[in-house]
Sequence to fold (419 residues):
Amino acid sequence: MPDSNFSFLKNVLLHSLTAYGGPQAHFAMMMKTFVKQKNYITENELLEYNALCQLLPGASSTQIIALVGYKRGGLPLAILTLMIWVLPASIFMGALSFLLHMIDKRDIETDLFKFIAPMAVGFLLFSCLKTFPLAIKNGVSWIIMILASAITYFFFQSPFVFPALIVAGGITTNITNKRKPEIIAERRKIQWNNLWLFIAIFVVAGVLSETARRQNWEYRKPINLFESNYRMGSLVFGGGQVLMPMMMEQYSIRPEAVRHRNPDVIQIDKADMYTGMGLVRAMPGPVFSIASFTGGMALRDMGNTPTQRGIMQAVGCAIATVGIFLPSFLLVLFFFPIWNNLKKYTVIHRSLEGINAAVLGIMIGSTFYMMKDISITDANVLSVLNLGVIVGTSLLLFFSRIPAPVIVLVCLGLGYWWI
Fold:
């Protein structure tokens, strides 16, 4: 492997250990590290990757970083990038399923992470400022940006708001922008293997899971666990804030209704689910890593001895992790070449202007949505510090070469000092 790829993977690892705040903040950190500092991709490419991944189900920040690896080194580097991005958070959340009895469920959010939220807002603010000159070209793009910002703020929890805004933005500028002549692009052969593999796994997992349940197979739980995670990873839009309620329904609410006819259904206590959902928000990396926690909790009672139960619990962490992230990876690798081919058509080229304006609006709306839960207007020291972290983070990102991980460590240290 070339030294440049080793350096890239090292930066992916640093990103995975310091990427707080969810997909929007992850995108902002990629803008700082992968675009501004390392020049792995251009700002326009990162914007396009973000737009494409918002249109697809699955873990959007995972898909974006996998595409960056794919662009640099093809499929092998994309796979390594995915693994390095996913593993740190997944290992921690899987370990949490073993250590849950040691966690104080009454106080799972420590002061150590007190300034992570304002830091994430600072990253988003930086990303908005960097993206603005690329996305706003005329009056129409201004209108799209403003409307997308307002809709994102008020409907942030809706799973379909992001793809709907991106599609609407693309349609708008395709209708209003007639400056370019129509271009006939050469049709390229599409590689269907990733899509067929995605569909085959979806169907086979579903059939095996139902058969195992009906015939009461001894090891049906691992099969059921993989199927439920693969299904959720294939269908969820809106990121982790949508995935977690789906998991709550799948593992804590629904089992109560079906337990009389399926006594061996996978069930996780609601209090345990809330603990995992709280801690995953405080951890760096993809929010989808909560699947590693639920996978361990799902299989922790399998086996006759403590050793067997521990092995099955670790197997559950691995099964759920693969199940939740694999669909995102297969889908983005299938649609990425199609996206590149479609860009050759003027109808799509004209749409990119509206798509980029909508993406910027989504980032602005997300920034204000995150700020509503941060104290910045109260007349106290905490509000002053929060405001200082937001502004200071943005200024450091914009005007200095300080790496993003250093800023994260400083904010964690500030939280420790606050304790």
Remarks:
- The longest helix spans residues 60-99.
- The chain is about 75% helix and 0% strand.
- The CA atoms of residues 91 and 411 lie 23 Å apart.
- The chain has two domains: 3-100+107-184+332-418, 193-330.
